[in-house]
Design brief:
Elements lengths: L5 H15 L24 E7 L2 E2 L3 E4 L5 E7 L4 E2 L2 E3 L9 E2 L3 E2 L2 E7 L5 E6 L7 E6 L1
């Protein structure tokens, strides 16, 4: 039975991890990968929740040029927020629920946004990130 040398296995693992964990310049938070047709607008009312320091989805979508609402459910007694960042994924949030402990639901009224791929995240937990698609 043949196995990879230890150095080859370690290199392959490092390459795989690097490919799966892109970060924005400056390392602020992981960058959300642009999503395809599987994440399409379904209406102006969206919902997302946080539990176990994770969002329940990694992609939300809305129609370009229309206002929308996001019901953000912080389902645990730790601080979270839901913020939509500019298309660059850098800079101040365009829309933000503010950081709060749950359990609590906050409704974010936002938009309109130009078509493009944006990012959403939780400022407290850098691993909580996703794509916000505007078509």
């Amino acid at each position: 039975m043949s196995t990879l040398p230890t150095w080859a296995a370690a290199t392959a693992t490092a390459v795989l991890l690097a490919a799966c964990s892109g970060t924005t310049e400056g390392g602020d938070h992981p960058r959300a990968a642009p999503r395809g047709a599987e994440c399409s607008p379904s209406g102006p009312s969206l919902s997302i929740s946080a539990k176990n320091n994770l969002f329940d989805t990694d992609c939300l979508a809305v129609a370009a040029g229309e206002k929308f609402t996001v019901a953000f459910d912080n389902d645990e007694d730790v601080p979270h927020n839901f913020a939509i960042l500019p298309r660059s994924g850098k800079g101040e949030a365009l829309f933000d629920t503010g950081v709060f402990n749950g359990p609590e639901v906050r409704n974010l009224e936002a938009g309109p946004l130009e078509a493009g791929n944006y990012t959403f995240h939780c400022v407290v937990h850098p691993n909580m990130v996703g794509s916000f698609v505007v078509r």
